[in-house]
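Fold this complex.
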Amino acid sequence: MRRGRRPAGEDTRASIVAAAREEFAAKGYDAVSMRGVARAAGVDPGLIRHYFDGKGELFAASLVPAGADPQALAGRFAEGGIEGLGERLARTVLAVWDAPDGQVQLRLVLSGLLSADGHVQELPRYLQRTVFDQVAALLPREVAARRVGLVASQVLGVLVARHLLRLEPVASMSPDELVRSIAPTIQRYLEGVDEGLAPGPPEEQNSSHGEY
Amino acid sequence: MRRGRRPAGEDTRASIVAAAREEFAAKGYDAVSMRGVARAAGVDPGLIRHYFDGKGELFAASLVPAGADPQALAGRFAEGGIEGLGERLARTVLAVWDAPDGQVQLRLVLSGLLSADGHVQELPRYLQRTVFDQVAALLPREVAARRVGLVASQVLGVLVARHLLRLEPVASMSPDELVRSIAPTIQRYLEGVDEGLAPGPPEEQNSSHGEY
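Structure:
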């Protein structure tokens, strides 16, 4: 099935990603070449370059379980606006990574992060472009990056605790129970509840309002 | 300095840990042997076994930056009780891992997690014994594990975002600013604020209160 050239299209892209996923998982980031992935996918190396800017981007695309499109998922949970976003986001992320091949992808992420050559800066950039920007668009510009970063810190931590460290009871809590626990945190980060900066302009402690 | 046998004592333990740290960092978990560490530390392999139950425990001990004793640190931040614990805990963890060799240790953790042979279950056990249990002792027994797990999920996530993914702006926020952001989350987990279990029994949506 995997042998031979294919016409360009989503099908081709998917089979490239599938091949890349297997290559990265088997060999680690550093040892994988675009040429090797092309061979495994049965496509021309030029075709890979048509879809992916480089090995880093190919790596990033291979990090999500097959069938999950982070951009589309983020679009969907961002669609409803800020209200309830914490819960929608938590539920989506857990569903994606609780999926059978989720753990393989997480290990991939980490072996990429451990690789010495630093291409994995692609990962934050990819997350930024596909997911973070869609959440940030709902937030005030000057606090968006900070709030999204804090959201990411809670989401990443749950994934690491649940799927890599397999820390109990986080590892075996039901998705519902986990969502109930972390969604309020995510929501608070999104709304800046703990910012300790608002209310009022920063560094303007001398301006009183009302009773002067 | 590292050559030759030494008398047993804290000094010996420290030099074993230092040697193990270098070995794990250079070779990855799987390729390290107790014998190799003994050789690097200039001690008898039996002496390593005197201090450490196995390679897993030795690995766990090598995960904290030199000089940081997780058990003592956890003891100190737990000492003051629940009040303000979120902030003390966040501040301590950031101080330990922001230290110059903190990132080396984090990479160690991850290469251990990625190793195939599963000995790294030692890590959760070690965390449990040295840190989690001291926090859990401050909490009601039936919710302690769950709350501590959630705390760990936020703490781990900040470390991964800040030091491994180097996700901005989390990577370059000052410790103070980060503490201000995540300490309330940790405190809420400790106090069970978002447990959604209390108050009242779940699934009893038919009980109205007041105006029937």
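The mean pLDDT of chain A is 80.
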